[in-house]
Amino acid sequence: MPARQKPPRSATRIPRLLCLLAEMPDGATLSELSEASATPKSSLLALLRALTQSGFLQLRGSRYAIGPESVKLASSIVSHRRFPDVAMPVVDALSDATGESALLAQLASDTPAAVYVYVAHSKNALRFIADVGSREQLYASSVGRVLLAFQPKEWREDYLRRAVLEPITDRTVRTKGDLRRIVDAVRRERVATSLEETIEGVAGIASPIFDKAGNVLAGLVIGAPVTRVQTRVPLIERMVKDAAEEISRLMGYAGEGVKAPSRTRNA
User: Was domain 9-79 assigned CATH 3.40.50.1820?
Assistant: First the structure.
């Protein structure tokens, strides 16, 4: 078998340069880029000139920065990404990292409920199991609450006015006043934790995913036995929020970062 040929250096240096500058909103000088990319200035200058002439970079004084053609390319890539396909690797990685089942849910189109659209089941024998297409109540489940919390205010108020809070377990929220306080906390903290409110012995920890326009697209949730996660809730809250933020960025969302998760429980 013939030896695999190495790609031309420029083929690897160009994406590396663009990635470097994408993390530098103020741009960088030739010297800074040479040091950061471990590339000789003489070789780097030719690439920078070519990328600038083609519009993928722009020169501001002595500093190179991302140009309009790079922005157009990024926007085109994001616009063609499909949910939940783009999120699946992140959900799988979250399940592996926590050792628990990780799921994506969206608001059902026919009724106010959360419907699962992707599931990465835990490899543990004792685990939370749900099928794609199965549903959760918005008022009781953690993933339902993140979907509820980030709906438009008029939609939320209509739901809170109409909802009948039927007890699912002994720990299900019973009053609309308590539910309203929970929803307000979820909007502040961008995380919802439900302990045994939908299934006895099961915990749910969820965070919202946003689309490019800043609308809530889905909820990402860890479902797990309470006995295995109750001492790890703050850690899993952070992991779920980080993963949800990553998916939001992949979908083109560029909103502000979220606050550190609170230790307050929503159950």
Answer: no
Say which residues have a Cβ less than 8 Å from residue 18's Cβ, sequence separation at least 6: 51, 56, 57, 66, 70
- The pLDDT value recorded for residue 10 is 56
CA-to-CA distance for 122 and 119, rounded, in angstroms? 9
Confidence band for 72, pLDDT divided at 50, 70 and 90: confident
CB contact at 8 A, 172 and 213: no
pLDDT at 231 over 60: yes
Could you tell me the residue ranges of all domains in the chain? 9-79, 85-250
Contact 136, 200 (CB under 8 A): no
Residue 152: CB atoms within 10 A of its CB come to 10
- Taking residue 81's Cβ as centre, other Cβ atoms within 10 Å add up to 13
- Answer yes or no: is pLDDT of 257 > 70: no
Q: Which of 226, 150, 135 is nearest to 185 (CA)?
A: 150
Which region, left, alpha or beta, applies to residue 117 given φ > 0 means left and ψ of -120 to 50 means alpha?
A: alpha
Architecture of domain 85-250: 2-Layer Sandwich (3.30)
User: Model pTM greater than 0.85?
Assistant: no
